[in-house]
Design brief:
- There is one protein chain.
- By secondary structure, the chain is mainly α.
- It folds into two domains: about 170 residues, Orthogonal Bundle (Helix Hairpins), CATH 1.10.287; about 60 residues, no CATH class.
- It contains four helices and three strands; from the N terminus they run αααβαββ.
- It has a three-stranded mixed sheet.
- Helix 1 runs antiparallel to helix 2.
- The longest helix is centred in the middle third of the chain and has 84 residues.
- Bound molecules: zinc ion (ZN).
C-alpha cells in the first residue's frame, strides 16, 4: 500500500472513532434522561397513595363531626324529655333519641370501616415509598455508570482528536487531504476502501475498470473508484 493511502486509512480510522465517540456523547445524556423518566411512575404512585389516604382522613373527620352533632342533639332531646310534663311529647322525644342513636351507631360503624381503610392506605404509602426508594437507587446507579462512561468517552475524544492532528500533519499533499475530507463526508465515512480481487469497490460495491484495479495494485499513483471516487487500496 502507498504511504499516503496508508496515512489516509489511519486518518479514516481515527475519524470513524471520533464519529462514534461524538454519537455516544449525544446518546449517553439521552439515556440518563430516560433513566430519570423511570422515576416519574413511582413518584406519581406515591402521590396518589398519599392523596387517597388524605381523602380517607377527611371522610373520617366528617363522620366524627356528624357523630358529634348527633350526640349534641341527643343530649338536647334528653334534656327536653326530662323537662317535659306531657306524656305524648315525652314518647315522641324518646323516639327521636332512638332514631339519632341508630344514626350514631351507623356512623360509628362507618368510622371503623374508614379506619380499617386508613390502615390499608397507610401500608400502600409505605409500599409506594419503598418502590420509589428502590427505583431511585437503581436510577442513581445507572446515571452514575452512564456519567462514568460519558467522562471516559469525553477523554477518549480529546485524545483521538489529538491523534488526528498528528495524522493530518503527516499528509503532505493538501489537495489529497481535501479530497479525502470531501469523500469521507460524501461516502458516509468510507473514503479509503479496499478493492476486492473481483475489482469491486467496497464503498459503492460497483466493479472498477481493469486499469483502475491495476493502478490500485501497483500503487504507481492513487487509484480512485470509477463510480464513487473512493480512494482504493488492494
Ligand atoms: Zn466506489
Amino acid at each position: 500500500m502507498r504511504d499516503d493511502v496508508k496515512q489516509l486509512l489511519a486518518l479514516q480510522n481515527t475519524d470513524q472513532k471520533i464519529q462514534a465517540l461524538e454519537a455516544e456523547l449525544v446518546r449517553i445524556p439521552q439515556l440518563q434522561d430516560a433513566a430519570k423518566d423511570r422515576l416519574a411512575n413511582d413518584t406519581l404512585a406515591l402521590a396518589t397513595a398519599k392523596s387517597n389516604f388524605q381523602a380517607n382522613e377527611i371522610e373520617i373527620k366528617n363522620v366524627e363531626l356528624d357523630v358529634g352533632t348527633r350526640k349534641n342533639t341527643i343530649d338536647r332531646l334528653k334534656n327536653q324529655q326530662f323537662e317535659t310534663k306531657k306524656n305524648d311529647e315525652y314518647t315522641k322525644l324518646g323516639e327521636e333519641v332512638v332514631r339519632y342513636e341508630n344514626e350514631v351507631d351507623k356512623l360509628e360503624t362507618r368510622e371503623l370501616e374508614l379506619m380499617e381503610t386508613a390502615d390499608d392506605l397507610r401500608s400502600r404509602i409505605t409500599e409506594a415509598e419503598q418502590n420509589l426508594t428502590k427505583t431511585q437507587r437503581l436510577v442513581d446507579e445507572e446515571i452514575a455508570e452512564l456519567q462514568a462512561r460519558l467522562d471516559e468517552r469525553k477523554a477518549g475524544l480529546t485524545e483521538t482528536k489529538t491523534t488526528r492532528e498528528t495524522l493530518v500533519i503527516q499528509v503532505d499533499d493538501e489537495d489529497l487531504l481535501d479530497t479525502y475530507n470531501r469523500l469521507y463526508n460524501k461516502r458516509e465515512s468510507q473514503a479509503v476502501v479496499r478493492v476486492t480481487s473481483e475489482r469491486s469497490c467496497t464503498s459503492c460495491h460497483v466493479q472498477v475498470t481493469p486499469a483502475t484495479y491495476a493502478l490500485a495494485q501497483s500503487g504507481a499513483a492513487i487509484a480512485y473508484c470509477d463510480n464513487c471516487s473512493a480512494i482504493l487500496f488492494p
